[in-house]
Amino acid sequence: MLFQEKIHELLKKEKIPAELLQAPPNPEMGDYALPCFTLGKQYKKAPQEIAKQLQAKFKPNKFIEKIEANGPYLNFYLNKALYNKEIIEARHKKKTQKETIVLDFSQPNIMKPFSIAHLRSTMIGNALYKILKQEGYKVIGVNHLGDWGTQFGKMMYAYETWGNKEDLMKDPMHYMTKLYVKFHKEAENNPSLEDKGREWFARLENGDKKAKAYWELFSKLSLKYYEKTYKRLHVTFDSWAGEAFYEPQLKGTIDLLQKKHLVEKSEGALIINLEKYNLPPCIIQKSDGSTIYATRDLAAAIYRAKAYKFAKNLYVVDVRQSLHFQQVFKTLELAGFPWAKDCIHIPFGTMNFEDGVMSTRKGIIIFLEEVLDKAVERVEKIINEKNPKLKDKKKVAEQVGIAAVVFWDLSHDRVKDITFSWDKVLDFNGETGPYILYTHARAASILRKAKQTKNPNYAKLSTPQEKELLKQITLFEEALQKSADQYKPSILAKYLVALAQAFNDFYEKCPCLTEQDKSLVAARVVLVKKTKETIKQALSLLGLEAPEEM
Questions:
Q1: Share of the chain above pLDDT 90, in %
Q2: Which tens digits make up the pLDDT trace of 117-149?
Q3: I need a labelling partner for 282 at 20 to 30 A (CA). Which of 120, 469, 517, 542 fits?
Q4: How many CA atoms lie within 13 A of 132 on its CB side?
Q5: pLDDT tens digits for 80-108?
Q6: CATH class name, domain 2-78
Q7: Closest CA to 282 of 325, 346, 247, 339
Q8: How would you label 77-101 residue by residue, b for 16+ Cβ within 10 Å and e otherwise?
């Protein structure tokens, strides 16, 4: 940017628009080119003559080594030694913003173990949390737990009817999943069980002691399990306020909407009629008097606006909930909240199983811990075969295994559906997490062995591979900004692949340890160090750790 600005200053003196400046198709034609075709009206000359006239006016300086007319183009050649030095020695500084962003992500339903499908909201949200913070925003990470609702009533009935505490305490999450699946299988033959579930939830909402004791037990066991998984994935939250947190605020929320004359009665239920906006009604209270998650989302948004005074309120939630958020946001807008426009749904595609969509109700589920364990196990096997003397084998296997699973997810554009396949997730070849981590370890290995790092001559970094690697390093900030602006960690993940490929190409063609020219070796070693730092920082923003050895 600094070098572009110096050229812009020259153009400004001649009242030439800076946006005309472009990268030439051939590097031999300079670093930047000014096409003179559109300047004919201003200079009353042919483009070739304009280029020559401007060459005579513009003088090289500390930043620009040579300015040369080439037909209708004026080409600028940068001071390579200074340019390369600026890239290599630049520090990625955290930006400063004053705006607060509330980021709602992960949101597991209590009593259900993490399935591989939970990975998407959790890791996309976690990456956005880190990326937005790096971009300078004050980010409030919220885990809006699904810890209230009819499913609790169903579990209470199932536990009361078929469960026992001894089995529950042995393996809480898998046992609760079994009971949940059993309830829905039994309900297929006996639909009246659905009413039993609703009755138990109504008891909970009305403060029944037994229902509340069950809720507290199931919640406590679930949170203990979730915290263990989050720790393994390096995911943290600033707030764990789930649906239950807003339960005391629901009556006030409904009263507020009634005062705004937005509420209608329909078959005993309270609704917000959104027909004129081509949306189905937003139900805020069912005919039995119980609330649904729309009511709780409305209460949560109102609470967050007061508590955090957010500039943006983001929801990283499955695309299948798009209609729900349209109803909620439209209701907030009709209620007269000016910040309703700042509530944004960040949808992501569904995670499909090879035999269809995963469903806890039907028992079609792949547990996330099982996927992580298998990935780590495979890495450990590879380490034992290829590098059995590696220090901290267990730790490295964990880092690489987690990266395999998480990077596989994050490297997909979030808006696209993805299909879970053991072969794809555990494939460590190609554009994968392990490939990126191996590149980082390769750079670390060079730095451990390198001895010559004094008096680097950056002007000598002139091979195509060196130029490409330098170029990729300069693109880090752009990838980071695009990821933040578009709420897409996949942009940063794809950038990491391009950076790793550029480095490995450089590694093959530009020796760092056997080159005889000491000033060139020193420059290359510093370039390796810069690449390693950039890879490590980008990985950390995706929630991944980079081992020094593999």
A1: 80
A2: 889 999 999 999 999 999 999 999 999 999 988
A3: 120
A4: 25
A5: 889 999 888 887 666 777 799 999 999 99
A6: alpha beta
A7: 325
A8: bbbbbbbbbbbbeeeeeeeeeeebb
